Amino acid sequence: MLSLACIAGVMITSCAGPSEQTANEPTISKVVQDIHSYARPDQAIVKHLNWDAQVDFGKKEIVAVARLDIEAASGASELVLDTKGLQIERVTLGEQEEMGTFEMGEFNEHMGSALKINIKPDTKRVNVYYRTGADAEALQWLSPEQTAGKEHPFLFTQSQAILARSWVPIQDSPGIRFTYEATVQVPPALMALMSAENPMQRNESGVYKFKMDQPIPAYLLALSVGDLEFAPISTRTGVYAEPSMIKESAYEFAELDKMLVAAEELYGPYRWERYDLIVLPPSFPFGGMENPRLTFATPTILAGDRSLTSLVAHELAHSWSGNLVTNATWNDFWLNEGFTVYFERRIMEALYGKDYADMLAVLGRQDLEATIAQLKEENRAADTKLYLDLEGRSPDDGMTDIAYEKGYYLLRYLEDQVGREKWDAFLREYFSANAFETMTTEAFLSYLSENLLEPNNLNAEQLGLKQWIYEEGLPASVPAVTSERFQQVEQALQQWKGGTPASQLNTKDWSSHEWLHFIRNLPQELNQQQLAELDAAFGFTNSGNSEILAAWFIHAIAHEYEPAYSALDRFLNKVGRRKFLAPIYRKLAETEKGKELALNIYRRARTNYHFVSSSSIDKIIGYQELEEKAE
Ligand code: BES
Ligand code: ZN
After folding, report:
1. Active-site residue among 229, 255, 315, 337?
2. Is any atom of ligand 1 closer than 6 Å to the C-beta of 289?
3. pLDDT tens-digit map of 554-611
4. Is the domain covering 325-470 a CATH 1.10.150.120 domain?
5. Single pTM value for the model
6. 270 is catalytic
7. Burial of residue 508, with CB atoms counted within 10 A of its CB: 0-12 exposed, 13-18 middle, 19 or more buried
8. 578 lines ligand 1 (CB under 6 A)
9. How large is the greatest C-alpha to C-alpha distance in the chain, in angstroms?
């Protein structure tokens, strides 16, 4: 028999099979303890969730019962779940619903409280009756004004990294997987969707049923409720959006099936049946979230010209890296994101060519260098390591571009060592051999040595892999990247600096990426006249492209270019995507005048932001202290 830890998927190396397991070997010593979960998978683990919920927009709460099928080690007396802000009403045991007893542990600001439920030797099911708290951190309740249609309210969840526990009492660790089913009651005018098999159609009763037969970790639990409509893209892909957004959404993502085909050709079959997208209201705090079968996406990628769809390739790629092979703890986050960025760029290369993927890699490199510099400045150089140490901190603290881009460059470096053919074969096998399992950084390193390095007479030491993973900054061996298309952008920049009017630069056929490169590389020193000239020639301030706008606002703030300020105010009041907000507020906070403006805007905009974004911006502008001073 495999140990309970193996069943839970918390260990890799010792889970190969019976031959490696000796009878009296203590299981517990092998469990990779997740420092961000109270769960004790060595005692009892959740295998299946049956969630029965009512969504109450009036009270902004979810009232639910979570029926949990569990497997307990012999002699175990407790099932420990993670919760945050949940009001637990009662706990019953078994199908007969015998009254159970439980205890809530101490509250921790990042982790919430343990819910310790007493179980009996024959307990196979535990039923938890509860309601969500007023500040449930995963949930964002939107008023009709915050939606595109302005008529109906909207609710969405964001569970990654450890916010699932604020809406479901569950073992909220990426190392613990379970299947689920759900019945959700919503107001009859609205439609509910989950990270599961979805009904796809509205129904009059407002009761929706969901099923997820593949085991997933809690951070992939997701729910969205709103005035939604579905448009098919192919037989196995499609998009959900508010009715007024559905047409442009279907246009923007028309190549979804092609992406899926390219992904499967690269790294093996898609294991989740359908792949759909939902375009959320603009306050969604991320660009995208890889909720299985139903990626959640920001409307800020609707550029009108399909030029920001690499984000979709990214979330799709997570269907392999992350959702199939999952980081065991948040310290191993780079295993999710670094692999996904690599895979994303391979999908984009397959669809649009090497030129295109090179642009993404160069932009990524700029982000990486900027992040390293910033983390050093903030005395957080330790967070430039791939393997993180998040003990006692919010996992969110470690979720920087390091995991994404340093991770990407490590994989590119490995590809260079053995050549693309062997590397691709290795990755394909990696995803298939470890499907529906978790992966630690150490387990990855041994898998890599055994399956790629040794057969090719290479070793981790000679490649400096320890340095890549456990040390700060970028090793000298980082592959160089260049982009031909960006060389033309750089030429245009030179010409402009040399006196050619902006309106005469050759910018024909530039995509979002070329524009981004252009704006990012404008000279540090710019006068009002130059800013106005660029703006007149290229219409940056009024751009409908969020990437262009966000990059332009950085210059506008740096030089107090006031013609852009009302657009800036509108943008910050509408968009809640942290990747855009954080650099803008950070730039504003550099001067006293900017800080004043930031605070003026933030006081109005804050209620439009999800917890994930507002908690970051609070820190950037020192909101709490400022508000206390003001009182
Ligand atoms: N899984 C992440 C989003 C995430 C990370 C949520 C950490 C919570 C904690 C998602 O796949 C992602 O990386 N989104 C990026 C887009 C991507 C193209 C880099 C984003 O939202 O900007
Ligand atoms: Zn990602």
Report:
1. 315
2. yes
3. 999 999 999 999 999 999 999 999 999 999 999 999 999 999 999 999 999 999 999 9
4. no
5. 0.95
6. no
7. exposed
8. no
9. 82
